[in-house]
């Protein structure tokens, strides 16, 4: 890690681990992220504001505002020893008020394409172009992460009813998936607010059924372990994978929308969320989730553990290695952390050696887009840091130790 990046990480970790600094920063970011700000508070138009945010929060957590900046960031992380890079285009829906939860269709309900006029939708077209541009900045072995709400109101309206998006969006998704298949790039579909998640999950299932053939996942769906209903959704998707013979791309996260989503849908405590996360991760590694792997065969699963939680990740890695060493059935597993967060955890994983003598597959995940487009993403990172006081303190200690070591050795 270059010195400049180390010092910036130390600066951000100092803010993140101190409530008196973090809360005002979070409030400021939330204020700036509201749409239609006047010139003074418009991060894309006010050059002074833009400069300050760029040199601090933006560069810490985001890959770049232009293709050139983003390409340089992707190369930089490859040079640091990561297996590859996960890149997403930041454009997403910014909500003025917390999203209302979808009433949600019952599992198994047949879904139909949204009833919207099949005219050419500019938002979907912009999203398609932005996504294909993102694809041009990564290469073989990398991963493209998709935030589907960025495709605008016709798509989000469909998602709120649990339906598939309009045909123009499905065509765009299939075009992107085919392009990725040809270039050796895999795809993550991000989980978003609960208002849209039922439709997003339905759409991803539709894509996985088509593209996750030949025993490998081209596409991963994201499962938010903090939701009480996730085990039921996962059982439904495992059932679909078993019945239709495709590989389930199982990306597990804890969940990033605790501020805006209805609290009643989310586990009551952090401990319950941790237990739920570990149960899914370890269940997949043991080939045993609910009935699957007991009274029913376990379908093909490709696991991606997206987290900064050292215990969850190192625990999963050790279990995986134990099973491989004992010749027991297990799944393929990939690990990912966000750009600018928990580098100590990423590098700890990279230093592990498996039964084959190789380091595990670890990816860094970042987002690109204009400052304005990235603000919603930056707010979520600040909220996460606010809620992960212990983790950010550990990070701060690790960063201070490294700065001290470099000063001493020079
Ligand atoms: C590569 C990558 C991709 C990601 N993609 C997505 C995505 O598509 N969608 C998405 O929603 N998130 C995504 N996230 C963010 C993720 O959901 C978490 O918010 C973030 O990683 C923090 O959780 P953690 O596993 O790192 O661990 P920790 O820091 O140990 O856990 C923090 C998390 O625990 C949960 N939590 C905290 N307090 C409570 C409480 N009182 N009750 C219940 N639960 C609580 C919250 O989910 C919180 O974010 C992604 C993260 C990574 C690393």
Describe this structure in words.
There is one protein chain. By secondary structure, this protein is α/β, with parallel strands linked by helices. It has two domains: 1-65 and 374-410, no CATH class; 66-368, Alpha-Beta Barrel (TIM Barrel), CATH 3.20.20.220. Helices cover 51% and strands 12% of the residues. An eight-stranded parallel beta barrel has the order 2-3-4-5-6-7-8-9, surrounded by eight helices. Strand 7, helix 11 and strand 8 form a beta-alpha-beta unit. Helix 3 (47-61) packs across helix 13 (371-387) and helix 10 (270-285) packs parallel to helix 11. The protein starts with a helix and ends with a helix. The relative contact order is 0.15. Flavin-adenine dinucleotide is lined by residues 190-191, 222, 224, 226, 253-258, 266-267, 269-270, 273, 306-309, 336-338, 365, 384, 387-388, 391. It catalyses: L-proline + a quinone = (S)-1-pyrroline-5-carboxylate + a quinol + H(+).
């Amino acid at each position: 890690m270059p010195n400049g990046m180390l010092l910036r990480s130390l600066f951000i970790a100092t803010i993140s681990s101190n409530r008196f600094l973090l809360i005002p920063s979070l409030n400021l970011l939330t204020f700036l992220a509201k749409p239609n700000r006047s010139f003074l508070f418009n991060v894309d138009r006010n050059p002074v504001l833009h400069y300050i945010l760029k040199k601090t929060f933006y560069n810490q957590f985001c890959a770049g505002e232009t293709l050139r900046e983003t390409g340089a960031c992707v190369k930089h992380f490859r040079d640091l020893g990561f297996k590859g890079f996960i890149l997403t285009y930041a454009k997403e829906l910014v909500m003025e008020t917390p999203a209302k939860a979808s009433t949600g269709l019952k599992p198994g309900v047949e879904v139909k394409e949204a009833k919207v006029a099949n005219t050419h939708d500019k938002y979907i077209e912009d999203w398609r172009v932005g996504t294909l541009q993102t694809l041009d900045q990564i290469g073989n072995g990398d991963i493209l992460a998709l935030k589907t709400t960025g495709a605008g109101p016709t798509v989000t309206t469909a998602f709120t009813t649990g339906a598939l998006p309009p045909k123009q969006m499905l065509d765009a998704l299939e075009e992107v998936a085919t392009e990725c298949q040809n270039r050796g790039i895999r795809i993550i579909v991000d989980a978003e607010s609960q208002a849209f998640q039922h439709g997003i999950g339905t759409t991803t299932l539709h894509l996985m059924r088509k593209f996750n053939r030949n025993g490998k996942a081209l596409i991963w769906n994201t499962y938010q372990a903090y939701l009480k209903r996730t085990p039921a959704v996962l059982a439904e998707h495992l059932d679909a994978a078993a019945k239709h013979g495709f590989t389930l791309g199982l990306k597990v996260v804890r969940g990033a929308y605790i501020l805006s989503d209805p609290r009643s849908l989310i586990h009551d405590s952090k401990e319950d969320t941790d237990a739920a996360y570990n149960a899914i991760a370890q269940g997949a590694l043991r080939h045993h989730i609910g009935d699957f792997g007991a009274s029913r065969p376990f379908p093909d699963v490709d696991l991606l553990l997206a987290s900064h939680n050292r215990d969850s990740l190192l625990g999963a890695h050790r279990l995986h290695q134990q099973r491989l060493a004992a010749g027991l059935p297990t799944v393929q597993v990939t690990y990912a952390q966000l750009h600018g967060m928990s580098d100590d955890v990423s590098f700890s994983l990279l230093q592990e050696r498996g039964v084959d003598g190789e380091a595990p597959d670890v990816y860094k995940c970042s987002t690109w887009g204009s400052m304005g487009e990235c603000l919603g993403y930056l707010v979520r990172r600040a909220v996460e840091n606010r809620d992960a006081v212990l983790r950010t303190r550990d990070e701060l200690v690790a960063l201070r130790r490294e700065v001290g070591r470099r000063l001493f050795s020079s």
